[in-house]
TrEMBL record:
Domain of life: Bacteria
Record bears the keyword Transmembrane: yes
InterPro entries found in the cross-reference section: MaAIMP_sms
Gene name of the encoded protein: metS
Protein name (database record): Methionine/alanine import NSS transporter subunit MetS
């Protein structure tokens, strides 16, 4: 491999894995249970929504 190819490979590995790590950190700071359209409303926990589906 040429030097340019190695530099590009390292650069894109850093970009891809950096995006993956950033997404994981963002998800851990903003979990699905508290984000989104219904995240802050009452009666939107998994248990309460599952109980509604069984009715």
């Amino acid at each position: 491999m040429s030097g340019i190819a190695i530099i590009m490979m390292v650069l894109f590995i850093v970009i891809i894995w950096g995006g993956f790590v950033t997404a994981l950190v963002n998800l851990s700071n903003n979990p699905d249970e508290s984000a989104g359209e219904l995240g802050q409303y009452a009666a939107t926990s998994n248990e309460e929504l599952a109980a509604l589906e069984q009715q």
